[in-house]
Amino acid sequence: MTIDMSMPGSSGLLNAVGKRDMKFFSNRYVLALTGAAGIGGFLFGYDTGVISGALLYIRDEFPAVRDNYFLQETIVSMALVGAMLGAAGGGWINDAYGRKKSTLLADLMFALGSLVMCAAGGPYILILGRLLVGLGVGIASVTAPVYIAEAAPSEIRGGLVSTNVLMITGGQFFSYLINLGFTEVPGTWRWMLGVAAVPAIVQFVLMLFLPESPRWLYWKDEKAQAIAVLEKIYDSDRLEEEVELLASSSMHEFQSDNSARYLDVFKSKELRLAFFAGAGLQAFQQFTGINTVMYYSPTIVQMAGFTSNKLALLLSLIVAAMNAAGTIVGIYLIDRCGRRRLALTSLCGVVISLVILAMAFILQSSSSLCMAAANGTCQGVLGWFAVAGLALYIAFFSPGMGPVPWAVNSEIYPEAYRGMCGGMSATVNWISNLIVAQTFLSIVGLVGTGLTFLIIAGIGVLAFIFVALYVPETKGLSFEQVEQLWKERAWGSRGNRQSLLGATP
């Protein structure tokens, strides 16, 4: 069988495959791989979300933390420093040693860091534990989406990768549930931080029995093992097409002598365009405020006038539940509406909800408007208005800008650079995340909560413009077709005249 994608508009494989599109729930083996890999996403979500509630009790136990905003921000953001380092190294580890070994390494970091935090006798040991779990988070943030994407049929790849985002949001929801459940238990925050060792151990055991990514195996010349995995995913006719395209793609990369180097990402125009789109999405995901909301939602709720720790955690639990529910909507829509349209719609709602949230805090800080109200009624109404703004923000963010950056970054890079570029873009995500987490409370203290959220809304407008201009639609495309898309964007008609597989027209 010959697969020719050298002509403009050619879609040989896609047309052949489109006649028998695989449905989301039609292959239990793919779902099992997705679920097992997604435990890394769950740990990602849990370890980044649990600190929001634990911080309330850490402040009570350690006087040095209570009145020190910088130390509070460091406890929160040290996991992000670890994640940044883990993502930077995780891309190389993925390409050199495979997705499976990378996952096992992440699990070891998760378990060790959780136990260190649980036993911490002071804030600085706690910070060390946060660094360790952050390394696990960083590696997992690179590995899980790539592992899932490389095992997924193209027509449901977006939904399956978004399932990992559902696990992230589910982990955040579960962390709030654990936070609420341990409020009356001695050693409150130690239990909150320590239980993350359990799912890490579970995933470690499961991964020992699961295969390596078939694309990575084929790329490393383990063809028999790769085909054995693909046989469990596709029927015989589809398998032949997938293997032939994979073989042709691998031969092209071999012939072009692509031993992946970091500098190649900036020297190659098509790689540079792909990385710019992927890294830009990751940066804007953070600068539009999602982890400000998730890390500090109990603190934001208290800023809105609800001073009870327990009530703040309960309201934050509702916000986290909406985040997980919205991600389910995203899983349904991402392979139907497409990545680009979903992101643009999401950003419109994000900007509107951030303006509402900002106005609630601005009006609340204007004491003259509430002076005539008895017993703080005005303050209470505006407090609930702020909580409604948080909920609306999550409702718009979670189906679009939550899963889209991870789905796009799992599919826009060539095989030889997928781990490396995925790691680099995830590092951009974590650097952006770190900047936001480390500065949010300080900026609030400097300019006020309302103006801070207005600034984030302005960034949301910039994000909309970026997606509209630089992010192409990749819905339903094979990895090889996505690679050809970037060639055409980089070189125009010259890209059209070149075969994706390196053949001469």
Automatic annotation (TrEMBL):
InterPro entries: MFS_dom, MFS_sugar_transport-like, MFS_trans_sf, Myo-inositol_Transporter, Sugar/inositol_transpt, Sugar_transporter_CS
NCBIfam families associated with the record: SP
Entry keyword set: Membrane, Transmembrane, Transmembrane helix, Transport
Main location as per UniProt: membrane
Family matches, as Pfam families: Sugar_tr
Gene3D superfamilies: MFS general substrate transporter like domains
The organism's taxonomic lineage, starting at the top: Eukaryota, Viridiplantae, Streptophyta, Embryophyta, Tracheophyta
Family: Belongs to the major facilitator superfamily. Sugar transporter (TC 2.A.1.1) family.
Descriptive protein name: Major facilitator superfamily (MFS) profile domain-containing protein
Subcellular localization, as worded in the UniProt entry: Membrane
Domain Major facilitator superfamily (MFS) profile, first and last residues per copy: 33-475
Transmembrane intervals: 29-58, 70-92, 104-125, 131-149, 161-182, 188-210, 273-296, 311-334, 341-363, 383-408, 428-447, 453-471
PANTHER family attached to this UniProt entry: PROTON MYO-INOSITOL COTRANSPORTER (PTHR48020:SF12)
Superkingdom of source: Eukaryota
Keyword RNA-binding part of the UniProt annotation: no
Membrane topology: Multi-pass membrane protein
Organism: Urochloa decumbens
